[in-house]
Design goal:
By secondary structure, the chain is of the alpha/beta class. Helices cover 26% and strands 24% of the residues. Strand 2 (77-83) and strand 3 (88-92) form a beta hairpin. Helix 2 packs parallel to helix 3 (65-73). The radius of gyration is 16 Å and the shape is globular.
C-alpha cells in the first residue's frame, strides 16, 4: 500500500488531477491559449540577448513554439533540451536546425547542433502553485539540470502552462527547485 501522506505521493495525486484537467481541454482551446502566450511576451523579464531554452510540446502540453519564434525575432538565441541521462543539455535551435525524434512525440536538435548554456529556462510542467512551486513529470530532470546550471551562473526559471494547471499548494521536497515566474495564457506572474 502506498503512503499518500508523503510529499511525493501528494504531488503524484496533484499531478494526475492537473493533467486530467489539461487533457480534458478541447483541441481548439489548447491551440488558442497557446497562441495567447505571444501576447504576453513583452512582460517576460528576459535579459537582453539571453539564450533561452524552450521545449518541444508533447501530448497535450501548451505549445511554446509561437512564443519562441517571437523571442527569436527579438534577438534571443534559442535552444531545446536534449536528454542525457539524469539531466538535460541544451542545443541550439535555428531555423535550419535538424530535429530528430526523442520519443513520446518530442523532437530535439541533432548532435550537430551546438551545445549552449541557457540564461533562461522556459519549462513544461504538470502543475504549479501561487508560491512558484512546480510539479514536473516525476523524473526530476529539470531539478537536476537546474542544480547544475546554477553552479555556472545566473539562471531564470519560468514555467509555461495553462492557467487550469494551477493547484492550491504543491508539497515540496529538498531537491525541488522553485520557479521565478509562470507564463500562462492569462499573462506572466513573478514569484518572490
Amino acid at each position: 500500500m502506498t503512503d499518500v501522506t508523503t510529499p511525493a505521493a501528494k504531488k503524484d495525486a496533484l499531478r494526475k488531477e492537473a493533467l486530467a484537467r489539461r487533457t480534458a481541454m478541447d483541441e481548439l482551446e489548447r491551440i488558442e491559449k497557446s497562441l495567447q502566450l505571444v501576447d504576453h511576451s513583452d512582460t517576460l523579464p528576459l535579459p537582453e540577448g539571453a539564450v533561452i531554452a524552450g521545449f518541444w510540446p508533447i501530448r497535450d502540453e501548451i505549445d511554446p513554439r509561437p512564443l519562441l519564434d517571437r523571442l527569436r525575432q527579438r534577438g534571443h538565441r534559442l535552444s531545446l533540451p536534449v536528454m542525457t541521462g539524469p539531466s538535460l543539455i541544451f542545443r541550439s535551435l535555428e531555423r535550419d536546425t535538424e530535429l530528430v525524434s526523442a520519443g513520446f512525440g518530442c523532437r530535439e536538435p541533432g548532435p550537430d547542433a551546438m551545445e549552449l548554456r541557457p540564461d533562461v529556462l522556459l519549462m513544461p510542467l504538470a502543475g504549479f502553485d501561487a508560491s512558484g512551486n512546480r510539479i514536473g513529470y516525476g523524473r526530476a530532470y529539470y531539478d537536476t539540470t537546474i542544480s547544475g546550471l546554477e553552479k555556472t551562473g545566473a539562471l531564470l526559471c519560468i514555467g509555461i502552462a495553462f492557467s487550469l494547471q494551477e493547484v492550491d499548494r504543491v508539497p515540496t521536497e529538498a531537491h525541488d527547485k522553485p520557479l521565478h515566474g509562470i507564463l500562462t495564457e492569462q499573462g506572466y506572474r513573478s514569484f518572490g
